[in-house]
Structure formats: C-alpha cells, structure tokens
Amino acid sequence: MSALKSNAVVVLSLVVVRLQSALYSIISDCDETYNYWEPLHYLLKGKGFQTWEYSPEFALRSYSYLWLHGLPAKVLQLVTDNGVLIFYFVRCLLAVTCALLEYRLYRILGRKCGGGVASLWLLFQLTSAGMFISSAALLPSSFSMYITLATMAAWLNEDTRTAIAVTAFSGLIGWPFAVIVAVPFVLELLFKKRKFLDFFKNAILYGAMYGVPIVLIDSLYFGTFTVAALNIIRYNVFTSHGPDLYGVEPIMFYVKNLFLNHNITLMLSLSYPLVVLTAACLGVRNTKNRLSPMQGLWLMSPLYLWLFVFAIQPHKEERFIFPVYPLFALGTALLMDQLFSHMRRILGAGRSSFPNRLMGFAVLAVALCLGVSRMLATSMYYRAPMSVLSDLPPTNEELSVCYGKEWYRFPGNFFLPPNYRARFVESSFTGMLPAYYDETQNGTQIVHDYFNDQNIGHPHMLFELSRCDYLVDFDKGAFYDELSAEPNYSVDRKTWSIASSVEFVQAEESASFARAYYVPLLSYRYLVWGRYNLLRRNKMKPIS
Questions:
Q1: Are 371 and 263 in contact (CB under 8 A)?
Q2: Is pLDDT of 434 > 70?
Q3: 63, 153, 273, 534: least buried by Cβ within 10 Å?
C-alpha cells in the first residue's frame, strides 16, 4: 500500500507540474505558431497560416504529425469550438503525455540504477525550467523528447522492440534527426549483443507499419508522393543554404540558453564523464547502483553525441536541444550518486552521511531556486502577446488585426475570436512571412509562386496599414516617426486608441539577470517595462 501511495504521489506531482507548464508557459518560438499551431488551426477550422515548408514543392512538414493532435481536438470540437479552449486542451494532453513517460522512466531507473538515482532525477526534472518550456510545446523536437524518455526506458529495460518501434515512429512522423538519440542503443544491439536479425526485422516491421500510413496521409494532403522526413533531411543536409539561412549563432548561444534552462544540472551533467573516468581508475562501483561507472557513461552518451552534432551546426535554435533535456537531470543524478559512493568509500558509511546529505540538499536548492525563478520570469515578464488579444469584442463582420514589427510574437488564430483575421503590415523585416492557406477543399495541394526556400520576402503577404481595424504594437516609449519602418504606433493617437494594454519587459534595456530570473523585491528595480498594446483604429464603424 505504501508503494502504491508513493507512486501515486510521483504521478500526481509530475502531472500537476506539467499542467502548470501547459497553462502558464509562453510560446517561445514563432516556429511553433506558424509551422504547427496555424496548420492545425487550418485542419480543424479551415483557416490558418501556411509557411513555405508546407508548400507541396518543398513539403518539409508532416500533416500526419498534426493529426496526432488534431484528432483529440476534433473530439473536443463536438463540445465547444472555442479556439482558446482547444489550444489549452491540446497543450494539456501533451503535458500529461510527457508526465506519464517521465513516470515510466522513473520506475525503471529505480529498478536499474537504484532509488537514489531515480529520486534525484525526478526532483531535477520537476525543477527544470527547460522542461517547463518544452514539455507542452507543439513541436516535433518536444515530441522527440517524449520519444527520448520512452527510448531510454526501453533501453534500460532491455526492451528491444519498444526502443526500435518508438525510434522509428519519431523519425518518420516527428523529427528524423531525433534518431541520433538511439545511435548508442543500436551500436550496442548490433556489436555487443550481436542481435542483427532482431534489429533489422523490427526496423523493417515498424518502419513499414508507421511509414506507409504516414506517407499515404502526407501524399494525400500534398497532392503528390511525399516523404516529409526525407525532404527535411535533404534540405538541411544536402542543400547549400539549408543549414545556414536561418538562426546562425555562435556556440555561446547554446551555452547561455542551456544554462538558463538547466543551470547547475548543465554543469554537473557535462562533468559526469570526468567523474566516471576517475571512478574507473580508482575501481569504485556504486554500492546501490547496478550500473558500473562506464555503463552509466554509455547510458549518457546520447546527450554528448547530440550536443556535439548540433553544436557544430551553424543554425542554432533553443528547440533543437529539447530532445535531450531529460538527460541533463539524469547525468546530474548519476554524477551525484557516484560522488556519494566516493564519499562512502573515503569516509565510511556513517561519517559520509552528513556531507552527502549536505551536498545533495545544496545542489537541489540551487536547481530549485534558479529553475523556479526562471519559470516565473518567463511566464510573468513575457506573457503579454498571449493575453492582449483577449479583449477583442465579438463581431459579425470580418475585421483585421495587424502585426508589424511584432509579427513573430503572434500567438496564433486560436486566440482570435470568430471573424477576425491576422494580417502583416510592412516593417523592417524583409524575409518571407507566412500566407493564409487557400480556403478550398484542396488548399494544401496548391503551389503558390510567392513561396520560396531562400527566405526572400514577397508583397503578397503584406496588408495595407490603412485597412487595419486593429494593430498590435509594442510601445517602448519612443516618439512617433511616420518615416520609420517601424514607428511607435501607440503614440499616434490621431489614428489609434488603446483597446487593451499589458506590461511587457523591454529585454534589451533591462539588466540581464533581472530579465532572466524573477527575484522577489529585487528584479523589478532593474527591469525596464514597455506596454504591449492592442490598438483600435479611431472612428471605426460600430461593431455589429
């Protein structure tokens, strides 16, 4: 009975924390909005933005992946058609899925690595700001993170078929690069266990089981034979512009982002190989862990392989590291377990108890404080784009809500009431914007001449400012300069009035620690705030 209660507490803790992520985390990447929420909105409601990746001539994204989320959303639509409710319903499903997969890995870690490792991993997962932003995101990289949890659990449990099945599923329907996580498992299966027949038999079986319906669904939507997973590999690996057209950043981009999201667990998990090599040289084995130090290092090898592969790519995005986020907590748990064993070996079981507890509490305290502080900062300082549209009144005529310099913060059509359309007006951004799908029966199959894979803007996507009924603008306190490419529309009171306004941090003007972490009574002294405004055109005709 006590074990049942303990497991119930673990499941409840994971579900509650992940649901907090679903309800309070922001959309941190416009790719999530335009490449996933918007096409999903089109599938569900017949209206939404299309990016060039969904054009049939490129076909880099999978409609099969969208329908994984669209099917339960369709069921909810039988009860309500409210876009905001559907948005958060899908997010909550993702959050619960993540929590259940985490629980599965927690149980197996307890059996294979000991209760100490499992408990530490669980605590670091619950306090991880990285898991807060990724666990409920509608992104293939978050889906791949779920698969990482399933793969690691199957690998530890020596469940070959499940590991191959989930890896095949992730590679075909989600993000094909996610199979990198399974490379050490495959090498072990082929060259250590010599299970060549098992591997190829299951790979072919599950590849066909998942691949055939995925290809059929995508081919139906694109109107031509389509293997989206191959298309995205071809574009990113075998074209001259694929890897370096968007988001080219130095290696410090990942260092900064990973520290913000994982703080002390980043440093400790990356230090794990050094501790393992030291333990191997000294012949130390964890007294409560069935894994030898070298087995633990092999288990962690997907993290180091992933970081190496993506660190050397010119295109760097925060979401690219999502698939291995749970491994930072695992590496830290294994390292601390190893250090505890060292202390027991040096000081003895009795004398090592206090320093081990002190070390454990210190690391957990740092992870908890920095993790929670980061979660609060992102949800409190940067939520305005997801809340400012809530004051749009109902209408029976079509009205336009325009975005200029704030185009990349549009949360999606799920947040717009019926009969509103988001539009883009000219700004300093000259790259390619998304365009609305053709709202016809074969809208996904039409090839448009305004899409390209070179990030070259096209006037088709732009809307005349004079036709905008509403405009979303970030007021940083500047004067109105009508000659500017991005004027501060909020102070042009002759044309606009403020319909809704929410505080929003001016990241560039605020102290870096203050905008990154929430510290009660301190952060606000070092933050510079602007107003995120929903502007209404003056002298609009009355809303019917």
A1: yes
A2: yes
A3: 273
